[in-house]
Design brief:
Shape of chain B: elongated
Radius of gyration of chain B: 22 Å
CATH topology of the largest domain in chain B: OB fold (Dihydrolipoamide Acetyltransferase, E2P)
Number of helices of chain B: 4
Structural class of chain A: alpha+beta
Strand content of chain A: 5-15%
CATH architecture of the largest domain in chain B: Beta Barrel
Number of strands of chain B: 7
Oligomer: heterodimer
Largest sheet of chain A: 6 strands, antiparallel
Order of helices and strands of chain B: HEHEEEEEEHH
Largest interface: A-B, 54 and 48 residues
Distance between the termini of chain A: 53 Å
Radius of gyration of chain A: 26 Å
Distance between the termini of chain B: 71 Å
Largest sheet of chain B: 5 strands, mixed, barrel
Number of domains of chain B: 2
Helix content of chain A: 55-70%
Shape of chain A: globular
CATH class of the largest domain in chain B: Mainly Beta
Structural class of chain B: alpha+beta
């Protein structure tokens, strides 16, 4: 009964979406207020209906209703509750319902918080949101119904893929989807602006916080996935330039560009058409990202079994959305008037450079990801594009981006004095040279790695110097500086935090890629191995029974000289339902490095294969990304963006401190 | 600064960045692609020795052996027409099994054996790498695993 209610609610949601997608936008075109007013209740009703459907599916998973095919295929009674719930989105059908739920939630947010938006814009935005919902609801209902029944019902389910039974991955898809779907806001606003032929700073004041919300979710989502791969796969790596990873990284790059160009629209009323294009491209890449994982088009180490029959529908959906919006852009973009002028050396100029580099970098990732498809279609050759390709294309493009990133925030709007700014970056330059020399002295190694460490230092010191400059740290009495820091807009603090976070993460990524040490050996119980100054001793291996698996848990003691450092318990689990083994790495972090141990199979003589990694600065990656997300959140708390806070109607008088981010 | 001048600067900047990126991409496409071969391709001697390639097929039944050092595994990858000996030093992925599909990356040594640097894992029991499916289809040995396992 409950699954049918869910199914029915999903169908009703499609009906509501059809109304929401047509009536308000026609009303906006003809100036009928009553028609436009349909949008808000419709958006709320849609959220309510999709929530019912989602809860119905969750219910089926929680009570293990094995008359529902989806539950049979992805759940098992012995599974812990958390994974019963995460099983809802651990499969294709359920993940589509989650996608639509998040979409409906964003639509409802426009309805609730959009009180101060001009009614025609709000009506159009909500209609465009409904078009997206129509596509996805139809896809879900026609090709991947999550509520399909099975008869006769089996006694138990086939369990969720054990690799997915992990807290990191339980929350990875919702985060990632909130990011992907969050960009639909920017997309809907872009399409609405194209229809209206008008973009004003009020438009950007709406688009930017929502893009920032999406960006924070996407950043956190990608990182959770990467973190999961790091500790769960036991390969000691955290990023593999795999098509599935790239699929989530491309909207991130484009979204980051969008975030920065929207600033120019908001502050300077320039780059409007460009920003609209970025909004369309970002959401298009999000759609491609959603489907690349599922379509089976690309071979990926992260690929799960797929159903190619959905491919056609997906392709159609992508063509209509992406093609349609780009055509609309081509027709209507000239109607969007160009805004303020600026010199090449200016804050705007730096942000344009940031945009160009990010978009081109995204282009190289796109090419690397899809080139195997093109080549196979053209010549029949099968190839794969791996990390060496990206190291030679993506990485060099990032170098000037990071170099400019430290300079950009110092530049004034409209026209800036580059020589003066570079003068203020002397300290950063000195830090960069010191870091590079330090890297050579400590580790030596590849030129690019040394350069990257220098750049990371340049970025963090440059970023902090800009912040110190603004609050006149050490140049004014401390109390004065503190007062200034309080007076600084939150978005300025947010930017400093996010940029500094990138520097920290970059140092981590560079060190992990360049100076990782690895060894594989067979160890008898009691054997020790020495690596990077630490001694690893295999003490014992026990067999342990988990809730729905059995596990070989090893105890490895790490010491440094006479000092005890840590005891790690790497595991090898076997999930009997799917007959599938998984690896749980044992990781101890010192803050400067991760000590990472994986246990393999036993041999006849009672020894165990043990793989040990010394992973320098990997914790910095997670810390840096956390800083970036926190920076985004701090920025969101800025007064200008606070939800529901009335937008300041009156223009601030010239010369008043207009927030500088 | 007129609007035209500004646009000119922006286009010039965009062009130079694009040109630089295109040069990087073209260079990388020359040297950094990894081609995929089936065991039959390798047996026919069409693969260059020393260059990094991918080899995919099924792990031959009964061929998996651990060598004396304890951490090197040797096995044969087959498309049921030809098979190629492979050695790999390291931990095999969790889902590595005899009779299952596998993709390995490495290079061909002078004596015709394949030295794998990486054995690619699958995340999913039912998943068969597309290249492996195609290699089996090419050798005429493909049968739909979903029919066999259900």
């Amino acid at each position: 009964m409950i699954p049918e209610i869910g199914h029915f609610a999903l169908i009703l949601a499609l009906m509501v979406a059809l109304v929401q997608g047509s009536v308000p936008i026609i009303g906006a075109a003809q100036g009928r207020t009553a028609w436009m007013d349909v949008a808000r209740p419709a958006a709320l009703l849609q959220l309510a209906l999709v929530t019912i459907a989602f809860l119905a599916l969750t219910w089926a998973f929680v009570v293990s209703d094995f008359t529902v095919l989806n539950v049979v295929q992805n759940s098992h009674t012995a599974k812990p509750l958390l994974y019963k719930i995460s099983g809802v989105w651990g499969n294709h059908e359920g993940s589509m319902v989650l996608w639509v739920l998040i979409l409906a939630a964003f639509g409802a947010a426009v309805a609730v918080f959009g009180g101060n938006l001009p009614p025609p814009l709000r009506a159009r935005v909500l209609s465009v949101q409904a078009w997206i919902a129509i596509g996805f609801l139809a896809f879900s209902l026609l090709t991947s119904n999550p509520f399909e029944r099975i008869f006769p019902a089996p006694l138990n389910g086939r369990d969720l893929n054990p690799l997915l039974q992990d807290p990191g991955l339980a929350f990875h898809p919702p985060m990632l989807y909130a990011g992907y779907v969050g960009f639909s806001m920017a997309f809907s606003f872009a399409i609405a602006a194209l229809i209206e032929g008008r973009v004003d700073p009020a438009w950007a004041r709406w688009v930017r916080p929502w893009t920032l919300v999406a960006w924070c979710f996407l950043t956190a989502g990608i990182t959770l996935g990467s973190w999961w791969a790091y500790y769960e796969l036991g390969w000691g790596g955290w990023w593999f330039w795999d098509p599935v990873e790239n699929a989530s990284f491309m909207p991130w790059l484009m979204g980051t560009a969008l975030l920065h160009s929207a600033i120019v629209v908001e502050k300077r009323d320039a780059l409007k058409a460009w920003t609209i294009l970025l909004a369309i491209l970002t959401f298009s890449l999000s759609l491609i990202g959603t489907f690349i994982v599922r379509s089976g088009l690309l071979t990926s180490v992260h690929a799960f079994a797929t159903d190619p029959e959905r491919g056609l529908f997906i392709l159609l959906l992508l063509c209509v959305t992406i093609g349609g919006s780009l055509i609309l852009f081509a027709i209507r973009a000239p109607a969007v008037q160009a805004g303020g002028l600026f010199a090449p050396v200016s804050r705007e100029g730096a942000l344009v450079l940031n945009n160009l580099l990010l978009v081109v970098a995204c282009g190289t990732v796109f090419l690397g990801t899809l080139y195997p498809l093109f080549l196979e279609a053209a010549t029949g050759d099968k190839i794969s594009v791996g990390p060496p390709f990206y190291n030679k294309t993506f990485v060099p493009i990032m170098v000037p981006l990071i170099a400019v990133m430290a300079i950009g925030p110092f530049l004034a709007w409209k026209r800036a004095d580059l020589a003066g700014v570079l003068g203020r970056l002397k300290l950063a330059f000195a830090a960069a040279v010191l870091a590079a020399l330090g890297a050579v002295a400590l580790e030596g190694g590849p030129v690019l790695a040394v350069l990257a460490m220098g750049l990371a230092a340049w970025l963090i010191v440059g970023t902090l110097a800009e912040w110190a400059d603004r609050i006149k740290l050490f140049r004014a009495p401390l109390g004065d500086s503190l007062r200034r820091a309080r007076g600084l807009p939150r978005s300025a603090h947010g930017m400093t935090l996010a940029h500094a976070g990138l520097a920290v993460a970059m140092a981590g990524m560079t060190a992990a890629a360049s100076w990782k040490v690895e060894s594989v050996q067979v160890m008898q119980l009691g054997d020790s191995v020495e690596m990077a100054g630490y001694t690893y001793r295999l003490d014992r291996v026990d067999q342990v029974q988990g809730p729905n698996y059995t596990s070989d848990i090893a105890q490895v003691t790490i010491s440094r000289g006479d000092r005890h450092v840590a005891r790690l318990t790497p595991e090898k689990r076997l999930y009997p339902v799917q007959q599938m083994p998984t690896t749980e790495a044992g990781i101890h972090t010192t803050g400067l490095a991760d000590l990472y141990v994986v246990i393999g199979d036993p041999d006849e003589a009672g020894g165990w294969t043990v793989r040990i990694f010394h992973e320098p600065l990997v914790p910095w990656i997670w810390a840096g990304v956390l800083m970036m997300v926190l920076g985004g959140i701090v920025s969101l708390s800025d007064r200008r963006f606070r939800l529901g806070a009335p937008a300041r109607r009156a223009k601030a008088p010239a010369g008043a401190t207009v927030a500088q981010t | 600064m007129t609007r035209k001048r500004r646009r000119l600067y922006m286009v010039l900047a965009a062009m130079s960045i694009l040109a630089g990126a295109a040069a990087l991409v073209l260079g990388a496409l020359q040297s950094e692609l990894t081609y995929f071969y089936s065991p039959t391709d390798l047996a026919a001697g069409s693969a260059p020795a020393g260059r990094s390639i991918r080899l995919g097929g099924l792990v031959e039944e009964g061929s998996v052996e651990r060598l004396d050092d304890g951490v090197t595994t040797s096995f044969r990858v087959t498309d049921l027409t030809s098979s190629v000996p492979v050695t790999y030093r390291g931990l095999l992925p969790d889902l590595f099994r005899e009779g299952q599909g596998v993709v390995t990356e490495g290079s061909l040594s002078a004596d015709g054996a394949f030295v794998a640097r990486e054995v690619l894992a699958k995340h999913d029991e039912n998943y068969m790498p597309r290249e492996v499916t195609d290699a089996l289809k090419k050798s005429g040995q493909w049968r739909d695993p979903t029919e066999a396992t259900e």
